[in-house]
Design brief:
The protein is an all-alpha fold. Helices cover 47% and strands 0% of the residues. The chain has six helices and no strands. The longest helix has 20 residues, at 92-111. It is elongated, with a radius of gyration of 32 Å. It starts with 9 loop residues before the first helix and ends in a 7-residue tail after the last helix.
Amino acid sequence: MSGTSSVGGRGVYEAGDQRTVPDSEKNERERYKEGQPHSHLPNDSKDERSIANKLAREEKREKEPEPKSKEAAESQKDPTLPAKNHGNEPSKGAKIDAEIQAEEEEMLKKKGAWGSKK
């Protein structure tokens, strides 16, 4: 059929220069980043993992502790600290939270440690 084409010569349609790599060379080559950790996003809609694999992953996630960001941990200690670290003035709400936290700490110090009786 390629002989009846008027587009080009026979050499254009023949695969004389197209060769596949022999299997002996394929096994010797280094694999390109095969099986990298975290290569599957858990909520990827285009991921072709089976439902059983997705359910197994969710069961593992339920047992894992929720990772807290650095800023979330800082805001537990001092509500104004994340804004200060970014070079901003803390918001009015953060200032109020800091005042409330300081007042509660004072009240707890006045009451003492009620759990231990020494």
